[in-house]
Every structure is written in structure tokens, then in C-alpha cells.
Amino acid sequence: MSQLLENFHSVQQSVAQAAIDAGRNPAEVRLLAVSKTFPAEDIQQVFQDGQRCFGENRVQELTEKAKVLDKSIEWHLIGHLQQNKVRAALEFSNWIHAVDTPELYRRIQNIAGELDVHPKLLLEINISGEESKFGFTPEAAVEFAKTLTQEGPAPLVGLMTMAPFEASPEELHKIFGGLRALRDQMQEIRGIPMPELSMGMSGDYPIAIQEGATIVRIGTAIFGHRTYPLAAE
Ligand SMILES: *Cc1c(COP(=O)(O)O)cnc(C)c1O
Questions:
Q1: What is the pTM of this model?
Q2: Residues 6+ apart with CB under 8 A from 120
């Protein structure tokens, strides 16, 4: 078996085990394989092994891969999305994880309505308050939730966050638990279910699963180390 498939199987098992250890049903935790920077051939290999959800953080790279790969792949755009790339993003993205301003949210709704597409949206939240990060502050997210009592063409199904790489286990529990509590609060305000919590990456997913993650975004542990730096999009 290839190293890639060995990695993939071991991540699948360890995600399921983390769910069981947390007293959760493993079927409630979706594994998103983050394939950014890796070639379509690698995605194809993991796809043939049964994986259906792949994450990319640049619109152009997602589009190029989607065009040559199987139509049944569910594409998740996980990186920062610029306003001028929304239309291109909506061609293939089934999920958009990093909706980080009210303006971007409205633009996605407008264009999704026009194109009659219905991608699932997640708001990106900057829970830890890091200066360098994109995302709503928790306070801004609560204020925004008050304006979202009706669903648009693209349903807002939950929240996403990224923890700082250097965070301790205690800090990770606070960040991921904080995202879950914020989701509960926003759901209450909106009166619309927001079941999804996209949190946890290669280095921190077991704690995210303990705190209720429904989607873990895992790249390195499956595909290996990325060899070139990524420009923010
Ligand atoms: C690259 C990326 C990941 C995957 O990170 P790994 O540490 O390689 O597992 C997850 N989420 C986002 C938003 C990313 O950009």
C-alpha cells in the first residue's frame, strides 16, 4: 500500500477513535481531507479509497482540480475568500468555511441566488483574538446573528475556527469549547439550527473532537508536509 493510503487509513482510525474516546458516535465527525498544494493524482488515490470530501484554500486551485476529478467529490473551500472571487468560488464549492465579514456573506447570498446554487456556509470566528487572523470576533458574530433570522439561498450551517499553532491543550479546550458555546448562542438567537463545527487540524483534532467538532480539516497527517508556502487568497 502507498504511504499516502497508509496515512489516510491511520488518520481515519484515529479520528474515529478520538470520537469514541470522547463518548461520541464516530459517524458524527466528518473527515475533510485538505489537499491544498498536492496534485490531483493524490486526491484521486484517496478518492478511490472511499473519501468524498476534500478541502482547498484557493479558488483557482480548487477549480482546476474539480475540473479534472470525479463529479461526486464534495469540495470545501476553507481559505480566506476575496469578494471578487465569489462568483468563481461558487462554480465548484459545495461548502465555504471562511465567511469572515457580513459583506462577504451578503455577496455570497446574492450571487448564489442569481446562479441558483446552495453551498453550505460557515462563519469563521477568531476566538483566540489573534491580531493576524481573519474572522468575526465572538461579539461581532452575536450581533450579526441578530440580522440572520431568515435563511438565504446558501444556508448558514455552523462555525469554523483555527487555533494558534502554539496553543497549549488548555488553550485549545478553551478555543474549541468557546466556538461550540458561541454556536449554541447564535443558534438560539436565530431560531435556526447550526449543527456544524469545523475545528481541528493535524496537530489538534483530538481536542477539537472532544469539544464537539463535526468536521476536522486534516492535511499534513494525510498528504505529508507541504513544500511551498501559500499566498493568502
Ligand atoms: C491547511 C489548512 C488546514 C490543514 O492543516 P494541517 O495542519 O495540514 O492538517 C486546515 N484548515 C485550514 C483553514 C487550512 O488552511
A1: 0.96
A2: 94, 95, 96, 154, 155, 157, 196
